[in-house]
Batch of 2 targets.
Target 1
Amino acid sequence: MSGYNNILVGLDLSEESSQVLDRAAQIAADGNATMSLAHIIEPLTFAYGGDVPMDLSEVQEQLQNQAKEQLGKAAASLNIPADRQHVVLGQPATEIHRIAEESGCDLIVIGSHGRHGLALLLGSTANGVLHGAGCDVLAVRVHSSAE
């Protein structure tokens, strides 16, 4: 594998994220590369309880604050500065592509759960990132503690 200079790690902040982060950190250390972290939050749409729409902006803000805190902890363990920590609202694959392009990344590292059947048919974030990236993509097969 050729050396990479600028690695973007897309994290879903699940328990398995550490597996993705560990693999990316290993690649970064081997090539003395810079790492950035990204977590994309899909926007909550308006939920309708009968005829009364509910504004979920406060819940959305809480989710973003929690994500920033979690991503900050992951970044702190690897000395990744705040300007390379991205918590963004949007469609995951699209936003990961945008951040990677704007940051000049030459590798995107994401987790893949290796879904089968209907889950595979419906698509996944990993698949979406792979099929539109302007740079190399490494999908790290993650294993849940239940496996």
Target 2
Amino acid sequence: MSFDPRISMITLGVADLAASTEFYQKLGFEKSSVSQESVTFFRMKGTVLGLFGRAALAADAGIEEAGSGFRAVTLGHNLGSEAEVDEAFAHALSCGATEVKKPEKVFWGGYSGYFADPDGHLWELAYNPFMANNADGFMDLP
């Protein structure tokens, strides 16, 4: 058996499930009807985003909850132009995101910026002229 290279679901541990659910709904994520009192699921193109209490997620994985700051992981959202990055960034901030790095031209030839959700999870909004989105909204890699 080989490992199928895909991500079916991304789960974020959050301090306040209701507040984080509201934040993602304001961003435009559609809450799934299979969500429960202790977990929220959002439909995304090709995957699912789950929100779960931080302590409960740590307990489920059998690890300590302690830890904060940079997690060495970012969630990326590729857009079709610099203007779309700016628009999405402004929208995220209006929904309660924290500005981490204002969008700017970057060394690799694209344009990107970072915001943090209410729990500090980093999102990169980027325009990458070398890896455009296809008609379904997924990145096409060369």
